[in-house]
Design goal:
Blueprint: E1 6-13, H1 18-31, E2 35-42, E3 50-58, E4 71-76, H2 79-85, E5 89-98, H3 105-108, H4 118-124, E6 128-132, H5 134-141, H6 147-155, H7 163-173, H8 179-192
Helix pairs in contact: 1-7, 5-6, 5-8, 6-8, 7-8
Length: 195
């Protein structure tokens, strides 16, 4: 019997909330009865370095690791991270990318330059990419700190279960004082893809 396992990567830089996003994703899949494995790979997250999380779910998942060409969905919190991890996307996979740019340390110090037209270059490769100005949408929800949940709202359309599950998971996972703003951020992200 086939055991199709779905693979999601969440990529960003330190401080963007990638780990909370992976926790929310993992909990949502568990709520729906899936076996879930989550693996976090930290770069120099305290200095704005890459942070990657693998989330794998299915009837039975044996390993938390996603190899190149295996990701069904990549949720990227920053443009350069979209380019960095693109090789992990399946040919028919979906890249959901925030349009935000965060300069890495080599760019800040002048040792490198931030590439131009990253998302345009990705589009030219015939990649299924959904571009979202999650930072702007987060501001509309009331805080720039909820870009991660805005992006989850967008990604929810590709994950095959209902919005109330997401709202329940958000409500039971984030700190109580941030529940309402996170719910609002999710709703704004969710609505964005319906436009």
């Amino acid at each position: 019997m086939l055991n199709p396992v779905k693979n999601i990567m969440i990529v960003g830089v330190g401080g963007q909330g990638t780990l909370l996003a992976s926790k929310l994703l993992g909990k949502a899949f568990v709520e729906k009865g899936f076996d879930v494995k989550v693996s976090e790979v930290h770069g120099m997250s305290q200095r704005g370095g890459s942070v990657v999380t693998y989330v794998r779910y299915g009837k039975k998942v044996y390993s938390p690791v996603i190899d190149k060409g295996e990701a069904d969905i990549i949720i990227s919190f920053e443009q350069l991270e979209s380019a960095r991890w693109l090789g992990f996307l399946k040919p028919d996979g979906v890249l959901i990318s925030n349009t935000q740019k965060i300069e890495p340390m080599p760019v800040i110090t002048g040792a490198a330059t931030y590439p131009d037209d990253i998302l345009h270059t990705i589009r030219q490769k015939d990649i299924n990419i959904i571009e979202v100005d999650a930072l702007d949408l987060a501001k509309k929800s009331g805080s720039t700190k909820v870009t991660n949940v805005v992006l989850l709202g967008v990604a929810a359309h590709f994950l095959g279960f209902d919005k109330p599950t997401w709202i329940d998971v958000i409500s039971s996972t984030v700190p109580p004082k941030t529940v309402e703003i996170n719910k609002r951020a999710f709703e704004i992200g969710y609505a964005e893809i319906c436009k």
